[in-house]
């Protein structure tokens, strides 16, 4: 991942009403009414902290998006970014087998950012939370140097049973996926090539990922032995399960042929294969199950075995070891 | 609050090992072992999300600090910032009457930021969490444009009883404070004046606030009717309680004379009074109690009454209405 460039102020910051023309109370007065609540929210945003009734162990995770690194103003609306940052956080809750219940949202922005962008962003956040039955528990607003906009979300949820870790895959399990593969990366490539009409569904997935949230707790109840959400690509994320579980995961290229074929028309076969194997930001769920325990909606794409003598834990495709790859935030490449 | 200036890369970014020379796994390997855990942490950082055993209603809050707005490299070390961002978040949990149990920490930084700064920062975060018996549940690392460093913390806690809101103050209550007044702002002024030797304790309080965390649940158990932590100054925060509760709070200047006197030698009497009445970032607790219910460690600094005919809810000093003032993050002043 290259360094994030210093950005010139784009359209988000040159039209409409700049944030600096409102005081914090006025701004909160425009933002807070748009956020969904829930019956479990005992104290809503506006006090020192929110209070939420909880049942069972708490699941907690956090993920941040930064303008210029995670999105471009030209490619995604404020509402798109609201949807996306909520979706990627809730996917992490689901990937533990949890049911998301609430989020906290922090906006750190150049005071030149337009109020209109922020209100559109809030609409997207609120819609994504409402769709998932999740309340907005609170947040923070902060000013940032010129050109900087970032949104940080913390998601909370609860577990009905035991959490599903990355480390529980066992020899004899099957590897399965719930949801699409490579679509979000295909969308990114089409945006980069200014060719969004070639596969609009991929562009829409890049802008608004659709993690199968209900499938996480269903997989946990069905006995999933390991699970995560695909944020950094099948090879890299599958490799994480394999190494944490000290097993070898054998990906079945035949099982991925349909995913590759779906992208080949828009991208050509080589790029399509890249997207399916290494494409990030998909937020489908990847899990291992004991053979025969697969719940509805999951499809088998590989199998789990013990490493042979001297073989490292990891992921192999049709028997050949492959390097894990994907996003890296600080390394200059 | 003026806009945050675009910063030139300072010492944090010009010495030692830049973050960009490590990949994310290497960086996490340096950071995660320093963080405290707890017996209630079922799944520690490293999976999709953390899992925490909880009892009672959950308290959740979030607060972010930005280089150049909330701190300057020349004035605060990485460890200082770690202490401060944890303290201000935990203070919000305590101000609801809650006991903090865990935090999530996000670092968004220019990849030129030095690893040495980050490791020092992690030491400060870890110390502050350890002092408070709080576990680090997880976090996120993200790259940012040149010169940008920010740290966002979400704090979680639990309540033994009912939450203490800002809106519960009643006529006949006393207003009380637990902790110092104006010290952190005095420290800021001494740093600005390059005169830290005049009152080192104030500078230390500016760098590392000391919220009285245990006093929050104690106040709740003793029957506090309203509470918050002093982040934006006595007038502004006291005014928040008054308006939320639809009462008038009468500050007693005599009760503040000692606080002003303690700062007068270093700052002169006018600035000392400013610090006590309007100084931010103190993170002492401010609460209202029924007369006679004051727990140990709290001192009375005012009283609560119903507004007279046509009088607005708010805070008055020796009978005279005063404008609320303090920090505002987006308004250009």
TrEMBL record, chains A, B:
Keyword annotations: ATP-binding, Kinase, Magnesium, Metal-binding, Nucleotide-binding, Thiamine biosynthesis, Transferase
Citing just one GO molecular function, the answer is: kinase activity
Q: What class of enzyme is it?
A: transferase
Taxonomically, the superkingdom here is Bacteria
Residues that bind Mg(2+) 4, according to the entry?
A: 48, 61, 92
Q: In which pathway does it act?
A: Cofactor biosynthesis; thiamine diphosphate biosynthesis; thiamine diphosphate from thiamine phosphate: step 1/1
Catalytic function, reaction form: thiamine phosphate + ATP = thiamine diphosphate + ADP
Q: Which residues bind Mg(2+) 3?
A: 48, 92, 229
Q: Does the keyword Nucleotidyltransferase apply?
A: no
Residues binding Mg(2+) 2 are 63, 92
The UniProt entry, under Pfam families, shows: AIRS
Which amino acids does the record list as binding Mg(2+) 1? Answer: 62-63, 140
Residues holding ATP: 139-140, 166, 231
Q: Which residues bind Mg(2+) 5?
A: 232
Which residues of the sequence carry a binding annotation for substrate?
70, 281, 327
Q: Identify the residues that the record assigns to the PurM-like N-terminal domain, covering every copy.
A: 46-158
- List, alphabetically, the Gene3D superfamilies matched: PurM-like C-terminal domain, PurM-like, N-terminal domain
In short, the EC number is 2.7.4.16
Keyword Kinase found: yes
* Note in the entry: Reaction mechanism of ThiL seems to utilize a direct, inline transfer of the gamma-phosphate of ATP to TMP rather than a phosphorylated enzyme intermediate.
Biological role: Catalyzes the ATP-dependent phosphorylation of thiamine-monophosphate (TMP) to form thiamine-pyrophosphate (TPP), the active form of vitamin B1.
Family as reported in the entry's similarity comment: Belongs to the thiamine-monophosphate kinase family.
Q: Which PANTHER family does the annotation name?
A: THIAMINE-MONOPHOSPHATE KINASE
This protein's name: Thiamine-monophosphate kinase
- The species is Terrabacter ginsenosidimutans
């Amino acid at each position: 991942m290259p360094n994030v460039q210093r950005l010139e102020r784009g359209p988000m910051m040159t039209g409409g009403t700049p944030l600096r023309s409102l005081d914090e109370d006025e701004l909160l007065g425009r933002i807070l009414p748009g956020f969904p609540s829930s019956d479990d929210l005992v104290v809503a945003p506006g006090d020192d902290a929110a209070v939420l009734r909880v049942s069972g162990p708490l699941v907690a995770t956090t993920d941040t998006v930064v303008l210029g690194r995670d999105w471009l103003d030209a490619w995604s609306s404020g509402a798109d970014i609201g949807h996306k940052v909520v979706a990627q956080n809730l996917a992490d809750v689901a990937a533990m087998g949890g049911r998301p219940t609430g989020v906290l949202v922090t906006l750190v922005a150049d005071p030149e950012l337009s109020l209109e962008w922020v209100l559109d962003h809030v609409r997207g956040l609120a819609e994504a939370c409402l769709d998932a039955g999740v309340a907005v528990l609170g947040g923070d607003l902060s000013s940032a140097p010129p050109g900087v906009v970032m949104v940080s979300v913390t998601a909370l949820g609860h577990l009905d049973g035991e959490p599903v870790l990355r480390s529980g895959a066992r020899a004899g399990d099957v590897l399965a996926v719930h949801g699409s593969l490579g679509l979000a990366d295909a969308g990114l490539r089409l945006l980069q090539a200014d060719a969004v009409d070639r596969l609009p569904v991929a562009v829409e997935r890049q802008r608004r990922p659709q993690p199968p949230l209900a499938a996480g707790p269903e997989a946990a109840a069905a006995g999933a032995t390991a699970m995560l959400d695909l944020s950094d690509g099948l090879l890299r994320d599958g490799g994480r399960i394999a190494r944490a579980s000290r097993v070898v995961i054998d990906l079945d290229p035949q099982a991925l042929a349909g995913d590759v074929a779906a992208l080949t028309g828009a991208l050509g076969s080589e790029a399509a294969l890249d997207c399916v194997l290494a494409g990030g930001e998909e937020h489908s769920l990847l899990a291992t199950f004991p053979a025969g325990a697969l719940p509805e909606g999951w499809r088998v794409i590989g199998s789990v075995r013990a490493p042979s003598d001297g073989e490292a834990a990891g992921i192999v495709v049709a028997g050949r070891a492959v390097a894990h790859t994907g996003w890296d935030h600080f390394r200059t490449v």
